[in-house]
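Response to reviewer comment R2.3. The reviewers asked that we include at least one raw input/output pair. We reproduce the pair for Ribose-5-phosphate isomerase A here without editing.
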Amino acid sequence: MMDTKQLKLMTLTDAVERIEDGMILGIGTGSTIELLVPEIAKLIEKGYELKGVCTSERTAYQAKALNIPILDINDVEKIDLAIDGADEIDPNLNLIKGGGGALFREKVIDAFATRFIVLADQTKCVSYLGETFKLPVEVDQFNWYQLGKQIEAAYPVKAYRRMVEDTPLITDNGNYILDVEMTSQIDPYAFHEYLIHLTGVLETGYFLDIADEAIVGTETGVKILTKSH
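Raw output as returned:
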């Protein structure tokens, strides 16, 4: 049995092959992307002209330390290719993201990109969204508790404020995250539509119809999933 890090490492070769000289890259957040960032730095050392827009302060810090030029999202005309991880991938290439707490910035950058590729290991592939992972929802600090109660009253779910060592996690945008646990399959389109209109919800961790391709490390090799797959 390979461990998840080995499976993640398998995806890097295919990811790097999709990076072309001159690109502006959307660089995601999470354990798989932490492995990819040094590979981007190696391309620059080889002479590639690449610039990055990062989905979190943490990724930006890692990228800058490796001399990858980083731009602000508001200073670019386009992002050629975004590469990010995922917490769940369903058969239609829809995702749940936000386990790392960066879901709002991830969605801004991944949706803005001309092409968006997901890197993951086989444990992230599910039959429906919410099967194994709670849905992160970024919410305002002011009414987080009331939002959780409102969501629980409308759907058969449990909403928990995300904590890190007994203190609430604060996102890069200064918000809290509610992790919403689903007890059964819920239509992601309808649930997202409900959540996004609640006052105090900034964004949900549903990434629907955004990903173009997923590169998945499995025990039997790398699997490429595309929208038509």
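The chain is about 30% helix and 25% strand. The CA atoms of residues 162 and 177 lie 6 Å apart. Further pairs are available on request from the corresponding author.
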